[in-house]
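Figure 3 (text version): structure tokens given as input.
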């Protein structure tokens, strides 16, 4: 039976450590969250981030902008937050409405306040092996592997999904740690042929129960990033019940990568406060 990669418990430990640290600081680290439009999932994520900030003693402020906000207004807001000394991290919740150029808006965020690691500069740095500003979900995935002392170097890691927020940066971080990395996506024929070769399998496809036991190598570490709304609640991208008897380690949904993502956002905010980018 697989060892559970308990993101909930690991994130709680991290939050406690952060709360201890922030208590000793002369002023509170500050995070500004910008939400454009009324995407219900985005609102839930920002609510959770705000609540967790409070718990660990991070000041948070939220800027709700209407759906029809134009790019110029958004840029003006970000520039104001760049200049605001009580704000150390700026989070621009994605996705943005289609009429706004997402990368242009992200690239206005000051490098010193890039808590999400989505600016072009941070993406380039990560590709070059510099992890000063790395996105929160990939950072949370790696931290979870490290917490459970899962060897990465020289192992074959397979990442299912190639988005800029999860798949690609996770693959880059695994490569930086000397894994041999394969990236799969929706055009990959015979996905199981690749996933069965994985010592470490990261699944971030947004497809409920895409990965089943016959697609998993005996003893592999399986990290399920997926959060999918299904009839009775939420499901991951991995069929947990069938895979838990075959994997060596497996992360649950909920209680796996989700809480780690939020913990990494708080850690990145504190790092920005301390002048360590991200
Ligand atoms: P995207 O939709 O941006 O990317 C999904 C990726 O999966 C794409 O690269 C796509 O391929 C690939 N894919 C889709 N279907 C298949 C398939 N059948 N076989 C192989 N690859 C496939 O999603 P995100 O990366 O933003 O998120 C992925 C999942 O993770 C979602 O469920 C999301 O909710 C969740 N998530 C969870 C977080 C957390 O904190 N736990 C944080 C962020 C996301 P292609 O490029 O060819 O289209």
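Below: residues designed for each position.
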């Amino acid at each position: 039976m697989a060892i559970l990669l308990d993101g909930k418990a690991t994130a709680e430990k991290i939050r406690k450590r952060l709360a201890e640290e922030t208590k000793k600081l002369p002023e509170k680290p500050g995070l500004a969250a910008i939400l454009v439009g009324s995407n219900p999932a985005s609102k839930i994520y920002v609510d959770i981030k705000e609540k967790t900030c409070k718990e660990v003693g991070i000041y948070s402020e939220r800027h709700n902008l209407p759906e029809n906000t134009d790019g110029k207004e958004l840029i003006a807001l970000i520039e104001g937050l760049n200049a605001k000394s009580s704000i150390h991290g700026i989070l621009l919740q994605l996705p943005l409405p289609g009429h706004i150029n997402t990368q242009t808006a992200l690239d206005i965020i000051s490098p010193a306040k890039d808590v999400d690691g989505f600016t072009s500069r941070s993406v380039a740095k990560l590709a070059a092996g510099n992890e000063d500003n790395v996105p929160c979900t990939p950072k949370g995935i790696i931290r979870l592997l490290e917490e459970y002392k899962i060897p990465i170097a020289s192992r074959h890691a397979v990442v299912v999904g190639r988005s800029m927020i999860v798949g690609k940066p996770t693959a880059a971080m695994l490569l930086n740690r000397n894994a041999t990395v394969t990236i799969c996506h929706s055009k990959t024929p015979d996905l199981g042929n690749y996933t069965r070769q994985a010592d470490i399998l990261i699944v971030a496809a947004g497809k409920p129960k895409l990965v089943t036991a016959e697609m998993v190598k005996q003893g592999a570490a399986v990290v399920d990033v997926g959060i999918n709304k299904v009839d009775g609640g939420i499901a991951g991208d991995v069929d947990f019940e069938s895979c838990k008897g075959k994997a060596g380690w497996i992360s649950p949904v909920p209680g796996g990568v989700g809480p780690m993502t939020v913990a990494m956002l708080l850690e990145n905010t504190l790092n920005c406060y301390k002048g360590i980018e991200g």
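The chain has ten helices and eleven strands.
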